[in-house]
Amino acid sequence: MPYPRAHYYVLFVIAVIIAGFWPSYWSTIGAASWQFHAHGAAASLWVVLVATQSWTAHHKNLPLHRAAGKASLLLFPFLIAGLFAIIDVTGKGYVTGDGPIRAVLGAHFLIGMVVAAAAYVVLYYRALKYRRKVWLHSGYMLGTPIILFESPFSRVLNWIPLFSIRGPADFDKLIPTIVFADALALAFCLAVWWRFRERATPFLVTGLFVALQMAAMGLMGGADWLWSLLRIVGEVPSGSVVGLGFAIGALTSWAGWNAGKRPVAQGMGAAQVA
């Protein structure tokens, strides 16, 4: 089986999530909005699920591995809906003037989350499509926590004086901090790809999305059309925004599962499925 220690890397991502979001979410969880709860629960469960799949595969617990895989079909729509919930709260905060960060960097966050959502959709779809090819399947599944890594790790970097953000005067550090976190994730993807080459194509695809997010957040955040889109998001009902994310996630689960079915054999009336 490929990547025999991958579950340790995913556990590291879980530790980064706890540390990075401790000041802003975990320590004040009772005061968080429902959008943050939706995203936090779905994203945390997703990373735990990926760790479980890796661990069960390498400990030859295939029934539990398959059960976790089927559970991912149900969880993925909530993962995308949770990310769209953060897009929603960003838009609503921008429109209502809730906090100076959204007023200055809201469009940067919007484009970054849109790229992240696209990355999740592509990686998970391909993980399902190639679920019978272990190198491809495991690589695409393991790519999803890398997309998540930037957000909590950029907050961990705030503990370092060079990246510390103590008030509006330090807002100019925020995007460079995110870009730096993405750069580390990109370096990791390229290192894995360099070691395994064509077998690690999923990490190259993941790295391309990370690079796209770096470029989009670093260069496109000032675009007028992004600010206009953010205002539209802020004025649309939250249910519509989150519902769109759920629909995208559900369609991805359905399309990926069907794309990975065994082909219909000649003379047989039905496809053989996993």
How would you describe the overall organization of this protein?
There is one protein chain. The chain is an all-alpha fold and 274 residues long. It has a domain at 77-258. It has helices spanning 6-20, 34-58, 62-96, 100-129, 134-156, 174-196, 201-219, 224-235, 238-259. The longest helix has 35 residues, at 62-96. It is globular.
Helices and strands, with pairings:
Layout: H1 6-20, H2 34-58, H3 62-96, H4 100-129, H5 134-156, H6 174-196, H7 201-219, H8 224-235, H9 238-259
Contiguous helical run count: 9
Through-space gap between termini = 19 Å
Structural class category = mainly alpha
Total beta-strand segments: 0
Low-pLDDT sequence parts: none
Morphology call: globular
Percent of residues in helical segments?
over 70%
Output the radius of gyration: 19 Å
